[in-house]
Amino acid sequence: MDSMGGMMTMAPGVPSLFYMQQIFWAFVGTAIGVASIANVLNRILYHQRISSSKNRSDAAKPRSFFFQAHATTSAIIREFSYYSKPLSFRNRHFYLPPVGPVIMMIGYVVLIVVCVFYRLNPKDFLQWEDIGYRSGFIAVCQMPLIVLLAGKRNIIGFFTGVGYERLAWLHRWVARALLFTVFIHMGFWFSEWAKYDYIGVKVKTDALTQRGIAAGSVLLWLVLSSVAPIRKLSYEFFIVQHIISWLGFFTALYFHVPEENRIWIWLPLGFWAFDRFVRAVYLIYANLSVLHKNGTGFLSCKATFEPLDESHTRITITNPPITWTAGQHLFLACHPLAPLSSHPFTIASLPEDGKIEFVVRAKNGATKRFFKYAEKAYLSLPTTTGKRNTGRSVLIDGPYATIRPLRQFDSLVFIAGSTGATFTMPLMRDIVQEWKGSRSTTSSRLPGLSTPAGAVTRHIRFVWVVKRKAAVKWFASQLDQVVQDVEALRSEGHDIAVDISIYITCDDALTSGQSSIIDGAPCGTKTQNGSSDRSSDEKKALTENVETLSRVSSSSTKDCCCTRLITDENAITPPCDCASRRQHQQKESASTTNSVREPNRVVDARINLLSGRPHVSNIIRKTAEAALGEMAVVVCGPAGLVQCARNAVVAISDDRAVHKGTGAQGIYVHAEAFGYA
């Protein structure tokens, strides 16, 4: 026996309990270190590309042996890590996680199993007690990692360059791995007690066992209640109960583990307190009017709520007290309308606009209350003259999120479904601002480490899928401004291009999270004879394909005729906007020409308005074939659209043998799926 609460000493040659905890954290720390080094390399590559962009048109193409090796390694890793196996069962579609995260979690579970059973024999009854102790020690030492991954002001994210919202899935899966470790811990103890019919006595009389069962039960509830279908039933309730349950779990765990092992309780509590303190400082600074110039009242932010249609609200905060970068989001709270709730919304505007703008889809809870208030605050919908409300005081928390700087890529493909454009739109506009030389700079950059002005990017391909034509008005002015700015820059001799296409469809698969892409058609990369859908000689066949799909969709769908797949944007297709037709049949009856030619356009004539679904693979492939260096694909939308884009990139990268001697350049993917982090 030793000093640790009567714990048995390990057998000769078996590592001590504390030593195996050190081994566990040596592997975890190494993984975090490798990710941090990769982040540093990406930053160096970013600076190098921007610096050389003034002298080279192909600055995004690696030149040195080191960066060529880096690009080849990155391409190989991406080809297997991006892929996600699509599954279908009785017209229900399931989206498995990409291979990369799956491999990462398998490696993590293997690490746990090795640390628990190293030099111990689970078949030897005499070693079951040792395994019970070891598994308990490995379980409790995972607590700091779980809390670190959950923080909004994330320390791991700071070093690795990954935002908290992209670490949230890892937080959940590490918690599930912790539960797995606890099951091993309980299983071996109960198995040993069962040999002597002693389980009932221990549970009834032993306080240590009772506290352990309480801690395990609360952990089981935490894991089960965090499963996506349950979590999304009521996000506000989930957050409150999750915090309360977490505190209860820590309390039971504190009294269950021996005193020498409570460092693993104090460390995560310290990390959690630090995260809350930093967030509180930012929250006070952003929301107290007295801390800002020209501040009036108590709170610094007032928001107006405007209904855009029957299910979307535009929320606008003028003269915001904070700055942000494209692609970030804020947590917004308006307690008079939605008490005790705070929701993350992507910022759809740039600092240069002088306002924070959100486009929010009304679902349940707070978003539905926001929309109902907006309807009451306006005399009518924006289709007629409305009366703007004076605004309500709101609280903001953020901004959050991190994305690799996109101006280091030669070509960019933005793909968005419905409100996913709130993410891709400011990213595209930010590049255009960089081209114009008018992008705002932030004072937070350290002296000597600021990135040179300019952009490597030459070509932007912007694709937006909306359910109804009326949705195009959400960002009509921004789209028109982009087209005009780019045209002015091209007239001055700049070698840049922006191609914008808006697909109007009644198919929820590409605009909401309710269903998936029909048969995965937009991901198709091959014709029946196996050749790519990109030859000009195939244009007639492609046009016939569009017409055939249109007839099939029209005959099989009562309420919608816009689900056809457009494999060639130059093909002539009849206009289709089912929702508008249902609501405004008389107004739409005169529209009989191609949507690209329709006279009453809501956006610039140089923006393609198409009726149907985009062929995602074709769009990415054509951009990749014209790229002079590494390109990026940014997709935001429902799970089906995100999976489609990822798999298309994998197929195209493998088909073109990216960085394998063919001269084809790499393709980076940044994906944002609908839902809470």
From TrEMBL:
<keyword id="KW-0472">Membrane</keyword>
<dbReference type="InterPro" id="IPR017938">
    <property type="entry name" value="Riboflavin_synthase-like_b-brl"/>
</dbReference>
<dbReference type="GO" id="GO:0005886">
    <property type="term" value="C:plasma membrane"/>
</dbReference>
<feature type="transmembrane region" description="Helical">
    <location>
        <begin position="237"/>
        <end position="257"/>
    </location>
</feature>
<dbReference type="InterPro" id="IPR039261">
    <property type="entry name" value="FNR_nucleotide-bd"/>
</dbReference>
<keyword id="KW-0812">Transmembrane</keyword>
<keyword id="KW-0249">Electron transport</keyword>
<dbReference type="Pfam" id="PF08022">
    <property type="entry name" value="FAD_binding_8"/>
</dbReference>
<dbReference type="Pfam" id="PF01794">
    <property type="entry name" value="Ferric_reduct"/>
</dbReference>
<feature type="transmembrane region" description="Helical">
    <location>
        <begin position="94"/>
        <end position="119"/>
    </location>
</feature>
<dbReference type="GO" id="GO:0006826">
    <property type="term" value="P:iron ion transport"/>
</dbReference>
<keyword id="KW-0560">Oxidoreductase</keyword>
<feature type="transmembrane region" description="Helical">
    <location>
        <begin position="211"/>
        <end position="230"/>
    </location>
</feature>
<feature type="region of interest" description="Disordered">
    <location>
        <begin position="517"/>
        <end position="544"/>
    </location>
</feature>
<feature type="transmembrane region" description="Helical">
    <location>
        <begin position="173"/>
        <end position="191"/>
    </location>
</feature>
<protein>
    <recommendedName>
        <fullName>ferric-chelate reductase (NADPH)</fullName>
        <ecNumber>1.16.1.9</ecNumber>
    </recommendedName>
</protein>
<dbReference type="GO" id="GO:0015677">
    <property type="term" value="P:copper ion import"/>
</dbReference>
<keyword id="KW-0325">Glycoprotein</keyword>
<keyword id="KW-0813">Transport</keyword>
<dbReference type="Pfam" id="PF08030">
    <property type="entry name" value="NAD_binding_6"/>
</dbReference>
<feature type="domain" description="FAD-binding FR-type">
    <location>
        <begin position="270"/>
        <end position="406"/>
    </location>
</feature>
<keyword id="KW-1133">Transmembrane helix</keyword>
<keyword id="KW-0406">Ion transport</keyword>
<comment type="similarity">
    <text>Belongs to the ferric reductase (FRE) family.</text>
</comment>
<keyword id="KW-1003">Cell membrane</keyword>
<feature type="transmembrane region" description="Helical">
    <location>
        <begin position="131"/>
        <end position="152"/>
    </location>
</feature>
<dbReference type="InterPro" id="IPR017927">
    <property type="entry name" value="FAD-bd_FR_type"/>
</dbReference>
<dbReference type="InterPro" id="IPR013130">
    <property type="entry name" value="Fe3_Rdtase_TM_dom"/>
</dbReference>
<dbReference type="GO" id="GO:0052851">
    <property type="term" value="F:ferric-chelate reductase (NADPH) activity"/>
</dbReference>
<dbReference type="InterPro" id="IPR051410">
    <property type="entry name" value="Ferric/Cupric_Reductase"/>
</dbReference>
<dbReference type="GO" id="GO:0006879">
    <property type="term" value="P:intracellular iron ion homeostasis"/>
</dbReference>
<feature type="transmembrane region" description="Helical">
    <location>
        <begin position="23"/>
        <end position="46"/>
    </location>
</feature>
<dbReference type="InterPro" id="IPR013112">
    <property type="entry name" value="FAD-bd_8"/>
</dbReference>
<dbReference type="InterPro" id="IPR013121">
    <property type="entry name" value="Fe_red_NAD-bd_6"/>
</dbReference>
